[in-house]
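tokens incoming
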């Protein structure tokens, strides 16, 4: 193998290493020992209609592109380790219908390479702006796309895991039940609620819907990038995503690898949770910015705003049908095939104004 192609070590801590280069080459190079990784935690470039700076791949070419990395995943992953992929959906160009590339990716990993789907998760971003704007805001025939799929896969049907590591705070109603007691009985659904239901287990077992707002706007990482004149990675997931899976699927001292590291959020989460980590990112500028996540305590203070927020409990509100008068809001009969006349006319007027 040409040594010039092997990713170069850019930065390291006591727990981790950050490399710049192609992670497929990195996994073949022998820099990671076979069967040594407990968790592959990553968010690869999505297949989006609009091209991004970080190099996203067309839906038609996505599966062959991703397969370039899969044999490396199998090589480095422990038999009872996990592969967790955060992946957003996409739309077909010019149409209000969805691409299924991320489902094709899932089926490829299962049917062709023998992975098991341990569980599917969904990351709901409550702060997500309405998108795609054309179909949501303008033609009003779709609701905003605010959920990513997260595939939890494993080579064994029994990957090591514990949901006790990721318990969430009890709801107000559950706290009331624990305080005042509950009459054991059989529900109309057939479920029997025993007295064990009143046991305080510190927290509740979380659902496979992760509600985490992605509202980072003034973090130490961002201020470091701005101070150094480095371009920030435009598609960072919140640290709560990798932290959840690192806690549930690994022990302190275990090894985590992110092959599409971006700004190395996974590495930072591992540092906080005392896991060993390896991050590999092909874009040199993103790697340079990522080093700002691992400054010494003295240097970090100059960039950190110490704005530690308490976890927020988000609510999903049901549709309020009383807000609307259906007789005054007809359905879009052509399904959004044509733009609303008023908007089309405004566009023409703007164009004519420019020409004059």
């Amino acid at each position: 193998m040409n040594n010039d192609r092997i990713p170069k070590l850019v930065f390291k801590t006591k727990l981790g290493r950050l490399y710049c280069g192609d992670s497929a080459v990195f996994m073949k190079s022998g820099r990671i020992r076979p069967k040594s990784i407990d968790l592959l935690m990553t968010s690869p470039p999505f297949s989006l209609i609009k091209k991004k700076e970080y190099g996203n791949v067309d839906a038609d070419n996505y599966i062959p592109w991703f397969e370039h990395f899969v044999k490396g995943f199998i090589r480095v992953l422990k038999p009872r380790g996990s592969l967790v992929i955060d992946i957003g959906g996409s739309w077909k160009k010019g149409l209000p219908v969805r691409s299924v590339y991320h489902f094709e990716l899932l089926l490829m990993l299962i049917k062709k390479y023998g992975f098991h789907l341990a569980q599917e998760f969904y990351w709901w971003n409550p702060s997500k702006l309405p998108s795609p704007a054309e179909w949501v805001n303008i033609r009003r025939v779709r609701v905003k796309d605010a959920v990513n799929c997260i595939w939890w896969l494993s080579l064994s049907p029994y990957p090591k895991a514990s949901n006790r590591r990721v318990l969430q705070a009890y709801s107000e109603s559950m706290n009331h039940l624990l305080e005042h007691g509950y009459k054991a009985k059989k529900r109309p659904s057939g479920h029997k609620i025993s007295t064990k239901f009143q046991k305080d287990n510190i927290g509740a077992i979380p659902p496979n819907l992760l509600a985490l707002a992605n509202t980072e706007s003034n973090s130490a990482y961002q201020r470091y990038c701005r101070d150094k004149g480095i371009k920030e990675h435009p598609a960072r997931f919140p640290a709560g995503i990798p932290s959840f899976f690192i806690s549930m699927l690994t022990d302190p001292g275990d090894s985590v690898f992110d092959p599409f590291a971006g700004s190395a959020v996974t590495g930072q989460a591992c540092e906080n949770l005392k896991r060993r980590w390896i991050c590999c990112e092909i874009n040199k500028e993103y790697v340079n910015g990522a080093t700002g996540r691992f400054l010494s305590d003295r240097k970090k203070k100059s960039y950190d705003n110490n704005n530690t927020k308490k976890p927020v409990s988000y609510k999903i509100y049901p549709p309020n049908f009383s807000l609307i008068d259906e007789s005054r809001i007809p359905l879009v009969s052509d399904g959004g095939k044509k733009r609303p006349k008023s908007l089309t006319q405004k566009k023409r007027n703007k164009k004519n104004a420019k020409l004059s």
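note: The chain has two domains: 3-168+205-331, 172-203.
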